[in-house]
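Subgroup meeting minutes
Present: P.N., E.W., G.H.
Scribe: E.W.

1. P.N. recapped why we're keeping a running log of single-chain structure predictions: easier to compare across weeks, and new members can see raw inputs and outputs side by side.
2. G.H. added today's entry (284 aa).
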Amino acid sequence: MKGSNVFFSILSAHHLFILLLCLFIAGSSCLKIGETCSSNSTCDPGLSCQSCSANGNTRQRCTMIQPSSPTSKVKGLAFNKYSWLTTHNSYAQSDTGSASLSPKNQEDTVTSQLKNGVRGLMLDMYDFQNDIWLCHSFNGNCYNFTAFQPAINVLKEIETFLAANPSEIVTIFIEDYVTSPQGLTKVFNASGLREYWFPVSKMPKNGEDWPTVDEMVQQNQRLVVFTSKSSKEATEEIAYNWKYVVENQYGDDGMKAGSCPNRNESSPMNTKTISLVLQNYFKT
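Output recorded in log:
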């Protein structure tokens, strides 16, 4: 398609400009974490140019902010008593090799996000090319220009992380457009993630606390998965998101001082029979 070719040309030229800028400033590449810098554009992608006077470092350096693990502060609490960093459209980053024109919400791969402290991933799944794909699309359909990559790729990244980190728990929130029979079940089975599955039968139904993190780790039930399709709790044993989670409005409308409206699909934020809260905080 001519439009796609134009897009690739613009994208390539943009990347070339950034590369040349980095070569000009740093000699061989963009600046790495910890190196002194003059602006964000001189640092590697995902880094920002900042100073930290608190530790006596007044010179600006390429920096990445990494959250501390909530369980490192206090141990023994129920899963719902901790705050877990979650990314929106976690799969939507530029380094996937796809021609997607959809917005890129993340700079890091899912693997990098997990290594840097993210423990909740929001994934949009669709039927596409006789498979399950991650897409940022519309009207319930995935297209070549909205597709990022097959879901199995990211699910295997998650499996690799869980296998290498036996005390960590990951939650997946699926915006679910999959209609193929047992489509999600098949892709999760193929990824190896069923080994870590937290069963729907153990999820609190009336606002009670979840099991403790220690209990979930000991039983190796370290993957919590929710779907936006209510029918799949019965047909595929994947928890229906809005039965267990309340969520505030995303985007600008969810960032107004003194207000915390729920998004349309969610129960009100003060619902007492649901013990998990998904808190959006990003502009649109």
